[in-house]
Amino acid sequence: MANDQLSRFLGDSPLRVLVRLVFLSFIVGVVMAALGIEPYDIVDSIIRFFERFYDMGFAAIDKAVRYFLLGVVVVVPVWLLVRLARSGNR
Asked: Using alpha carbons only, what angle is made at residue 28 by residues 50 and 48, rounded to the nearest 5 degrees?
């Protein structure tokens, strides 16, 4: 029963899927070696992508916080003055 569920999940018997993955991995490895691509290059590229994304994300958050604080410096005192003026009229 469990083997049937596993076969259904994998799309074929586990042994056939394993053989197919080994074969495809070998072929892709040969092609990548012919192109001069190393596994470490791919891993380095992925790490650099996430580092740049991380840096860019926090730079954007920093800008948003600066804009927010700039608005707070103007909006809160004006709001406070308006509230005080309205409470003085009562």
From this structure: 15
